[in-house]
């Protein structure tokens, strides 16, 4: 193994704590070439597509990366904002709020954000935290439900970075927060606020990102965690039975994925005479292509096309105040034991560094 030369922590430097808020990643632009780069990295991750490389590589590079980028780029173009991709906009904004709210609570921490695929990369942002003097880093994925394809893949990127580092900081990893009372409460408050304005639907559809069905049989807790989130949200809303349905969206390829699938379920509901549905995507902490395009555009059209009368999409948590408080609480719980309320003392650090250097010179 070759380790990079890197600026070491300096003796006596004030120890700092960092938080890395990590999301999936998004293309740099809504163009075929940007999509090809993004999808090649994303779909080339063995955590995401668990097929032997010899089998998957010819399909990915020979077919998918020739066909999908143009189609996907056209979809991204419909949701792109002047500030860029919504996923990037929300991820960055959430990190800024987290920094501010931890500061208000008296914590001296540095919060940065990264993307598992594309930029800013996990390695680049960990380098930046280290360069800022962070000797302790909390890895906080933007996924409430643990999944090997997402959460573990973020951890892989951190391990790969640490494997090349000489002086590795103390690391902590947040696994999941699918049943966190603050997260559930923020979701429930969002739904209740929508209902206060528009009345209650016949059915609340809670749509989570899908995964290949075999990952459940192989022990991935993702499916169970989605159902637990849904149950807790339903309890918080006081709904039960046929008042809500859990579905899985974004199926990729022909294999069986977690069921029931979101869009066919909505079509079936419309055909059964359900006139109004509300759809919420509790697994996504920020709106992105999967919610704004796939749900709010495609699924809406499918439901209305099948005879449904009203389709309400309830936006993701994004910069919701209750959610940002919950996220700050989650970070705070995981920082416990790290002395973040002690201001890094630059003067003491400099004095101690001088002493260490003087000692070194004397020997
Ligand atoms: C085999 C393919 C895929 C698996 C497995 C998968 C799991 C998975 N993904 C998310 C969250 C997001 N996925 C997003 C986009 C997206 N996902 C896939 C494929 C798989 N996802 C693709 C090809 C795409 C890109 C869009 C497209 O071409 O259709 C996003 C949004 C990104 C954005 O730029 O807005 C998120 C977020 C989870 C949580 C998950 C497993 C639990
Ligand atoms: Fe995905
Ligand atoms: Fe999708």
Indicate the overall shape.
Answer: globular
Separation of the first and last Cα atoms: 33 Å
Structural class: alpha/beta
How many strands? Answer: 8
How would you describe this protein?
This protein is an alpha/beta fold. The protein has 2 domains: about 15-175 and about 320-345, 3-Layer(aba) Sandwich (Rossmann fold), CATH 3.40.50.1400; about 180-315, 3-Layer(aba) Sandwich (Rossmann fold). Helices cover about 50% and strands about 15% of the residues. The protein has 13 helices and 8 strands. It has helices spanning about 30-45, 55-80, 85-105, 120-130, 150-165, 180-200, 215, 220-235, 260-270, 290, 295-305, 320-335, 345-360, and strands at about 15-25, 110-115, 135-140, 170-175, 205-210, 245-250, 275-280, 310-315. The strands form 2 sheets. The chain has a 4-stranded parallel sheet, with helices on both faces. It has a 4-stranded parallel sheet with strand order 6-5-7-8, sandwiched between helices. The chain starts with 15 loop residues before the first strand and ends with a helix. One fe (ii) ion binds next to loops.
Helix-strand layout with pairing:
Blueprint: E1 16-23, H1 32-43, H2 53-79, H3 86-104, E2 109-115, H4 122-131, E3 134-141, H5 148-163, E4 170-173, H6 181-198, E5 203-209, H7 214-217, H8 222-237, E6 244-249, H9 262-271, E7 276-280, H10 289-292, H11 294-305, E8 310-314, H12 321-335, H13 346-362
Parallel strand pairs: 1-2, 1-3, 3-4, 5-6, 5-7, 7-8
Helix pairs in contact: 1-2, 3-12, 6-8, 6-12, 9-11
The structure holds the ligand C=CC1=C(C)c2cc3[nH]c(cc4nc(cc5[nH]c(cc1n2)c(C)c5CCC(=O)O)C(CCC(=O)O)=C4C)c(C)c3C=C and fe (ii) ion (FE2) (2 copies).
Subcellular location: Cytoplasm
Enzyme class: lyase
InterPro entries: Ferrochelatase (IPR001015), Ferrochelatase_AS (IPR019772), Ferrochelatase_C (IPR033644), Ferrochelatase_N (IPR033659)
């Amino acid at each position: 193994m070759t380790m990079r030369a890197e600026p070491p922590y300096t003796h006596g430097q004030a120890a700092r704590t960092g938080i890395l808020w990590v999301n999936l990643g998004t293309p740099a632009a809504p163009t075929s070439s940007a999509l090809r780069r993004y999808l090649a990295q994303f779909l080339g991750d063995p955590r995401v597509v668990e097929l032997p490389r010899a089998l998957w590589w010819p399909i990915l590079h020979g077919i998918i990366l020739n066909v999908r980028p143009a189609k996907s780029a056209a979809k991204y173009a419909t949701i792109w904002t002047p500030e860029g991709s919504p996923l990037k906009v929300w991820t960055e904004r959430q990190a800024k709020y987290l920094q501010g709210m931890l500061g208000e609570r008296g914590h001296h921490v540095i919060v940065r954000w990264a993307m598992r695929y594309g930029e800013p990369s996990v390695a680049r942002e960990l380098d930046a935290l280290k360069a800022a003097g962070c000797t302790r880093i909390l890895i906080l994925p933007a996924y409430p439900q643990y999944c090997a394809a997402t959460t573990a893949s973020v951890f892989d990127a951190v391990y790969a970075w640490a494997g090349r580092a000489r002086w590795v900081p103390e690391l902590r990893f947040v696994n999941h927060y699918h049943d966190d009372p603050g997260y559930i409460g923020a979701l429930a408050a969002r739904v209740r606020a929508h209902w206060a304005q528009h009345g209650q639907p016949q059915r609340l559809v809670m749509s989570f990102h899908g995964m290949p069905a075999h990952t459940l049989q192989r022990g991935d807790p993702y499916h169970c965690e989605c159902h637990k989130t849904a149950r807790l949200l339903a309890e918080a809303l006081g709904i039960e039975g046929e008042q809500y349905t859990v579905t899985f969206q974004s199926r990729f390829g022909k294999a069986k994925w977690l069921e029931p699938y979101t869009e066919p379920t909505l079509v079936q509901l419309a055909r059964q005479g359900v006139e109004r549905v509300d759809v919420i995507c509790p697994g996504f902490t920020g709106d992105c292509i999967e919610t704004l395009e796939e749900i709010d555009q495609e699924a809406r059209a499918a439901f209305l096309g099948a005879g449904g009368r009203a389709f309400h999409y309830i936006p993701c948590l994004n910069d919701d105040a209750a959610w940002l408080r919950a996220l700050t609480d989650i970070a705070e719980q995981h920082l416990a034991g790290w002395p973040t309320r002690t201001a890094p003392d630059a003067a003491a650090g400099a004095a101690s560094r001088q002493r260490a250097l003087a000692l070194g010179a004397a020997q």
